């Protein structure tokens, strides 16, 4: 019965922590794949207050962090071509390839513009008719509708000096691959609302069944995350493996239908390379032949290689749930946000930069 008592956010958090301490009576390991949720967990100090036996590992949920060095090399090679303007997001330009980054080649005369949305790249192309504007489209499936919409708009207005390097990654095949590793021993997956944009929620239902995996979609506030953790622990204790999609109301089915239609019109899925994980079946998008004018891979004859990653860096282990930033000898020493070695320290979604910001920075003299 409702007692009429209003529970504040802080009280609710306390209740949820208490509940977690009560119900975690065995070692449980959960993966928090989303970079934004990992950042929120650190920002709210959730990690320190968890029961001892509840182990949270990170996953491949930062789209910039999972880009192999060889793909960054390809972005750089195209950016160095004459009459090219590369329009890229802020996080991406600092990510190192084998030897350079988009930021470092700006000093050598490459024209790189920082944008916040794909349509910004289109606008640059409209205003710079004598240049070719290349947009490296890095992101997960949630970003695919806006990239598809931009390409369709370019085709609609007949713009021929704009093209995209499709570098979108799809999470479900990668989660599937990781769950095959018995050493990881992940029992539950905390997912974010992001996946729900074009969400193939069915893919997660299949994953839950296939790997006996408990899944929960949560938001980004402390209470959302704690409720997700409580739900996952309860599922695991009850031997359930379901995909708990309580946030399905965020996007209407009409919005999802339209987004999926646009994506299918522009892209199809192919095997794609991920940093530290190799080639994963059907885990990325390429542009359909009908729209090849907007495909930078074809226009510039791009060949993606693996490239050379910094040997000190342990991003590969971290994005596959096999370690946390403090396990890396460079963390907070040779590698800081001011002098980053790997992508996990560069991107705001990167787990190393989140650890540094909310753990090291908050310590006295840290
Ligand atoms: S701390 Fe730096 S070097 Fe170590 S894993 Fe993270 S990004 Fe790589």
From TrEMBL:
Transmembrane regions listed in the UniProt entry: none
Pfam families tied to this protein: HypD
Signal peptide: none
GO molecular function annotations of the record: 4 iron, 4 sulfur cluster binding; carbon monoxide binding; iron ion binding
Residues forming coiled coils: none
Top-level lineage group: Bacteria
Alphabetized InterPro entries for the sequence: Hyd_form_HypD
A GO biological process held by the record: protein maturation
Name of the featured protein: Hydrogenase formation protein HypD
Lineage of producing organism: Bacteria, Pseudomonadati, Thermodesulfobacteriota, Desulfobulbia, Desulfobulbales
């Amino acid at each position: 019965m409702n007692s009429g008592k209003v529970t504040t956010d802080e009280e609710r958090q306390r209740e949820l922590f208490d509940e977690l301490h009560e119900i975690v009576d065995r070692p449980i390991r959960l993966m928090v794949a989303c970079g934004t949720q990992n950042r929120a967990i650190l920002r709210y100090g959730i990690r320190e207050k968890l029961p001892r036996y509840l182990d949270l590992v990170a996953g491949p949920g930062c789209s910039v962090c999972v880009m192999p060095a060889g793909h960054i090399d390809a972005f750089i090679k195209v950016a160095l071509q004459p009459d090219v303007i590369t329009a890229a997001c802020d996080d991406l330009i600092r990510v190192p390839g084998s030897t350079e980054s988009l930021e470092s080649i700006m000093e050598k005369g490459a024209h790189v513009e920082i944008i916040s949305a794909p349509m910004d790249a289109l606008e640059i192309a409209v205003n710079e008719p004598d240049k070719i504007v290349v947009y490296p489209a890095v992101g997960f499936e949630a970003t695919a509708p806006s990239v598809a919409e931009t390409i369709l708009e370019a085709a609609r207005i007949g713009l021929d000096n704009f093209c995209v390097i499709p570098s979108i990654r799809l999470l479900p095949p990668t989660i599937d691959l990781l769950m095959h590793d018995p050493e990881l021993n992940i029992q539950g997956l905390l997912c974010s609302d992001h996946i729900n944009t074009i969400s193939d929620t069915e893919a997660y239902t299949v994953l839950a069944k296939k790997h006996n995996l408990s899944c929960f979609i949560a938001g980004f506030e402390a209470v959302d995350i704690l409720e997700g953790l409580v739900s996952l622990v309860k599922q695991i204790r009850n031997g359930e493996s379901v995909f708990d999609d309580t946030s399905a109301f965020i996007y209407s089915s009409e919005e999802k239908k339209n987004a999926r239609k646009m994506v299918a019109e522009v892209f199809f899925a192919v095997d794609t390379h991920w940093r530290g994980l190799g080639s994963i079946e059907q885990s990325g998008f390429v542009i359909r032949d009908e729209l090849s004018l907007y495909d930078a891979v074809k226009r510039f004859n791009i060949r993606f290689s693996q490239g050379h990653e910094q040997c000190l860096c342990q991003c590969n282990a971290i994005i596959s749930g096999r370690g946390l930033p403090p396990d890396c000898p460079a963390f907070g020493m040779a590698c800081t946000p001011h002098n980053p070695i790997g992508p996990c320290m560069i991107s705001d979604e990167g787990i190393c930069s989140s650890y540094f910001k909310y753990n090291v920075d908050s310590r006295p003299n840290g």
